[in-house]
């Protein structure tokens, strides 16, 4: 059940991010990082927060 929920969250995040062309690299990176961080840590909140932070930094640096 946990794996199914995590998969659904990752898919929903990917769909939301792909539909928002006005979002900057930082926001897209943060959303993608949160999804990946949560999936890698089996749905952990800390993994989602850490992934969002790392994804936001990477998205910001790529955008510059």
Give a structural overview.
This protein has 64 residues and is mainly α. The protein has a domain of 34 residues. The longest helix is centred in the C-terminal third of the chain and has 19 residues. Keywords: Signal. InterPro entries: Gly_zipper_2TM_dom (IPR008816). This is Glycine zipper 2TM domain-containing protein.
Overall SS class:
mainly alpha
Beta-strand proportion = under 5%
What's the SSE pattern? Answer: HHH
| Quaternary structure of the protein | single chain
Distance between the termini: 40 Å
Q: What percent of the residues sit in helical stretches (DSSP H or I)?
A: over 70%
Query: How many DSSP E strands?
Result: 0
Shape: flat
Question: Which regions are unreliable across 5 or more consecutive residues at pLDDT < 50?
Answer: none
Tally of separate helices: 3
Mean pLDDT across residues: 78
Rg over C-alpha atoms, rounded to the nearest angstrom = 11 Å
Largest sheet: none
Protein name: Glycine zipper 2TM domain-containing protein
Organism: Nitrogeniibacter mangrovi
GO cellular component, one term: outer membrane
Keywords: Signal
Structural topology:
Elements: H1 2-18, H2 25-40, H3 45-63
Helix pairs in contact: 1-2, 2-3
